[in-house]
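Encode chain A's predicted structure.
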Amino acid sequence: MQQSDAQRKRHRLSGWDYHRAGCYFVTICTKDHKPLLSSVRKDQPIKTDCLSEVSALLTELTPTGQLVKSVWERMPQCYDGVRIDSFCIMPNHFHGILILAQDPEKADALHPKSLSELIRGFKSITTREYRAMCGKGRYLWQASFYDEIIRDDEMLFRVRNYIEGNPLKWLDDPYYCAADAAPER
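Encoded structure for chain A:
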């Protein structure tokens, strides 16, 4: 049963202007936590100390995960003043850092997109392309997303480490058992 907007819990910080320039850590989950995006190899021997390389070696993207990666990487070309930072595509969720940096020289600087508008656009594009790949009427994402405002360089460092180390924690994920089967498209 779908909750109405009035019933759904609000995840945004009250009083914060999400059009404001800054760094945002976002998490978006697949509908019903289905393992649509990737698989995590559990027995992969690792020969590097670099956490981001470990993450890339452990995670194998599905065609849907490759689609999500492609759309996320195009965000800076689609929206002025938007940059991406670390991101990780897990079987049933996506973590990423989105940086809103308004450029006063650009016309859009007077009307920048909010974080919610950017994520809505990302989810809309990925869902449309997913449906073209897998069939109409299929849902890719849950209704909302989670965000955290990154307030300083120390927090940015901690969030990057969390994102890059996420595949190492997959066995502890409460949805791991449901996702242990071969991922769907």
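The first strand starts at residue 22 and ends at 29.
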